[in-house]
Target: DUF302 domain-containing protein
Amino acid sequence: MLERTGHDLGKSRRIYEQAEILEFCSASLSRQMMEADPHDIVNCPFTIAIYTLAGNPQTTWVGYRKQSGKSAAALERMLSEIVAEALH
Model:
């Protein structure tokens, strides 16, 4: 998408070699979050980004949004465990 829209905007610099954002949901954790604070809906779906930067394909970056709110600890734990498992 960035490559296509870059052309439309007159921008040619490549930002990523490869990039993907994985979206998913945990029904039980989502329910727990919304019961604790209905405004936590903004955290759904959960996402983890995996990417390499243009010109540096040998380094893969993995990241996710730091959470806030009443259910932040449980969500942070789940996301960090998923990333840690994927990296090992």
Summary: The first strand starts at residue 16 and ends at 24. Residues 67 and 76 are 6 Å apart (CA to CA).
